[in-house]
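hey can u check if this looks right to u? its 374 residues, i copy pasted from the old doc so theres a chance i mangled smth
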Amino acid sequence: MSKSRTRLGIRYLLFLGVLSFSGALAAQTRSSTLLPNLDPRGAPDLTICSQNLQNFGVYRVAKSRSPTLTHESLSEKETALIKRFAEVGCDVIAVQELLGSTDQEALAGLNRLAAKLRASSNRIFDTKVGESNDPVLHNGFLVAKDRADILNTVSYSKVELPKTSPEQRPRTFSRGPLELQLSVRPRPDSDSSAKIVTIVNFHFKSKRGIPGDPAELEFETYRMEMAEAVRRVSESRHARSFAAGDTILVLLGDRNSNFDTASAQILNGTLILESFQGSAPCRLSKRGVPLCKAETARPQRLFSVLTEDPQTAKRFGTYQYKGEYSWLDEILMPSESLRYTWQTSESEGDFDSGVVYEPKDASDHALVYVRLNW
């Protein structure tokens, strides 16, 4: 072999060595860059979703609410809802505007959706429907059986609301909030233990039917009473979740008011209903926003993982009316539970939450979600 060919061979071997070293160095660099960001908790343990279904139910009942509905358009709506649920990977889905003149009729509609979910994902979902004071609208839950066991459900439909003024007649929730208690199984690849998670699904009075509102504030005072009742009941029933984080509490649903309204601030505990009674320091603007004297605010009790998240808060909102978006749909948790929603174990205040707008055929409300990890 000639010396020139020998030199070429040596150079080629050296070149391969440099490539090998460079590849190893790059891999090491990538590893050292990524490893510190890996979440030691592993994959999320539970994904909780909330979706206003916009008048969903079995065809006969849905048709009575939406006269232009056809079997084809109902099927398209179901397909669109399933796509939203699949995009997020929902383990628990709280639903509002589930139609049924009886609990059984509403359950039939929810079972239909569960069957569609099973056909598309091969996952079996338990279904629960709550009692309602509305002639046709219900709240409900879909729960993936491979992730959690349902321990208990409680309806708040019979709870008497606190009064805005002493002379008014007693009122109850327009649609009774439904509480669901779950035992969430640890994932197969996790060394964590089962966790108790309680979810309260609410749907407050809408702004429609204004002639029936004596305060002429689009029923904001009615929503304020509901917000006060939900927070009080939750604080009473789940005091441990507000004192320690060993059990997790989530309040979610359709508030039917924006995040800056009085009902929203009463719900999170910044204000209370008494702040607006008699000669109290707060009054309402025409839009339902509280106008209060200085130093009226109280320590916040519940925190939004949507509007208080740095990324999710940049989204438009969850509902559009006449070209304007509002945050009608909400997910709230006590501060003691918030650490389970962090994107990573070290990203305090950066929640693993989001909003899904597509497909549009699913609903006029966006889907909202939060992922829990322990």
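The radius of gyration is 25 Å.
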